[in-house]
Design goal:
By secondary structure, the chain is of the alpha+beta class. The protein has nine helices and eleven strands. The C terminus is likely disordered. InterPro entries: CC_SR_Kinase, Kinase-like_dom_sf, Prot_kinase_dom, Protein_kinase_ATP_BS, Ser/Thr_kinase_AS.
Length: 316
C-alpha cells in the first residue's frame, strides 16, 4: 500500500494515503510513558471525530485494512481528511499561485466560520496559524485542522499553548462573561492569519503600512486590528469578525462585477484556470475615482452601521 511522506517533527510522522477512499492523512504520534496523558488523548480524539463542519478537517476512524511498513497495531495513529493543496502556509508562499481580494474575503469567512462552529462545541483550538489551516478542492476551500490536544474553554489558563506571534500575550478569563474571553484566544491568531494572507509574508506585522491609501481595504484593516487587540475585552468576537467578512464579501463581489472578473478563484499562472492579474490589482488603487466609487462607499457605510466591536480600533 502507498505511503507518501508529508513531514516529520517533534509530534511524530505524517503520511498521505492516496489509495484510501476518501484519501487520508495518517499521523503517527510519538507516545510518552504517561498513562494519564495517553488516556486523555484517546478521549479527546473521540471529540475530534465528532466535529463535522465544511471548514474543519475531518478526523476518521482507522481503516479496516492497515498494512503499511513500520506501522504497528499499538501505535497511536490519527487519520484525517487529506487536503490536496496542503497548508495555507504552503499556499501563500507559492509564488506560482495568484489570488484576489475576493479569495481573501472567502478564506477569512471560512476561517471564522470554523471558529464559530468550535465555539458552539465549547472548544478552543489554541494554535490558529497558517500551518494549521488547510486548502482543499477546486474551490480552494479553507479548513481548520491539526488540533493537537483539544481544550474546552475552562482549561485554557491551565494549558496555555500556541505559537509565538499567533498566541495572545495574556489570558484574561472572566467567568462572568460566559466564557467569551476564552474563545477570543483563537480570534487573536486568526487576525494575524488574515494579515499573512494579504501580504504573503508570515510574520510581517506592519498593519498601517499594509493598508495605507487603500480605502477599499478599510473593512479588512478593521478586521485585523479588531482581532489582534491585546486587550481581550476590546477584541472582536467571532460573530463580530464574521460581520466584517460579510462586508468584505460585498465589496469584493462588486469590484469583480465591475471588472468582469471571476468571483472566487486562486489558480496557477500556467493558464489552468482564471485569476486576477497584477495589472487588475493596480486598477484598484484608482477604482474609487472611477465608476465603482459610489456603490462601494455605500456598501462600506452599510457595513459600518451594522458592525459591532470597539470603534476606537477602526480605520478612519
Amino acid at each position: 500500500m502507498a505511503m507518501v511522506p508529508l513531514g516529520e517533527g517533534g509530534y511524530g510522522e505524517v503520511w498521505h494515503l492516496p489509495d484510501k477512499e476518501p484519501q487520508m492523512v495518517m499521523k503517527k504520534v510519538r507516545q510518552t510513558n504517561d498513562t494519564d496523558s495517553y488516556l486523555r488523548y484517546l478521549k479527546e480524539l473521540k471529540t475530534l471525530k465528532d466535529l463535522i463542519h465544511e471548514n474543519v478537517v475531518r478526523y476518521y476512524d482507522a481503516p479496516s485494512t492497515l498494512n503499511y511498513p513500520g506501522i504497528n497495531p499499538d501505535d497511536l495513529l490519527l487519520f484525517m481528511e487529506y487536503c490536496e493543496h496542503l497548508s495555507l502556509r504552503h499556499v501563500i508562499k507559492d509564488i506560482n499561485l495568484v489570488y484576489s481580494m475576493a479569495t481573501i474575503a472567502q478564506w477569512s469567512t471560512e476561517m471564522f466560520s470554523a471558529l464559530e462552529y468550535l465555539k458552539s462545541m465549547n472548544i478552543v483550538h489554541q494554535d490558529v496559524k497558517p500551518a494549521n489551516l488547510f486548502v482543499h478542492g477546486p474551490d480552494y476551500v479553507l479548513k481548520l485542522g491539526d488540533f493537537g490536544i483539544v481544550r474546552d474553554r475552562n482549561t485554557i489558563e491551565k494549558y496555555r499553548r500556541g505559537t509565538p506571534g499567533y498566541m495572545p500575550p495574556k489570558i484574561e478569563y472572566d467567568e462572568t462573561q460566559g466564557g467569551e474571553d476564552a474563545y477570543k484566544y483563537d480570534i487573536y491568531g486568526a487576525g494575524w492569519v488574515v494579515l499573512d494572507i494579504v501580504n504573503r509574508r508570515p510574520g510581517n506585522r506592519d498593519i498601517e503600512e499594509m493598508f495605507k491609501d487603500h480605502r477599499h481595504l478599510a473593512t479588512l484593516k478593521r478586521l485585523v486590528i479588531g482581532c489582534t487587540n491585546e486587550e481581550v475585552a476590546n477584541r472582536l468576537s467571532v460573530e463580530d469578525a464574521l460581520a466584517h467578512c460579510k462586508t468584505m464579501t460585498k465589496v469584493s463581489r462588486h469590484i469583480c462585477e465591475c471588472f468582469l472578473l471571476p468571483w472566487f478563484i486562486a489558480a496557477r499562472q500556467d493558464g489552468t484556470g482564471t485569476f486576477w492579474e497584477n495589472v487588475t490589482n493596480r486598477k484598484l488603487d484608482n477604482a474609487f475615482e472611477e465608476n465603482i466609487s459610489s456603490p462601494v462607499e455605500a456598501i462600506l457605510n452599510e457595513g459600518e452601521s451594522g458592525e459591532t466591536g470597539d470603534r476606537t480600533d477602526r480605520a478612519e
